[in-house]
Amino acid sequence: MSDADHAAARRELVSALRRRLDASERTLSAIGAVPRHEFVPESHRGSAYADRPLPIGHDQTVSAPHMVATMTDLLDVECGDRVFEVGTGCGYHAAVAAEAVGPGNVFSAERVPELAAGARERLDRLGYDVTVVARDGREAFADEAPFDAAYLTCAAPESIPVAIVDRVLPGGRVVAPVREDGRQRLVRLTVGEDGVDREDHGGVRFVPMR
Question: What is the set of domains in the chain, with CATH numbers?
Answer without folding.
Answer: 3-203 (3.40.50.150)
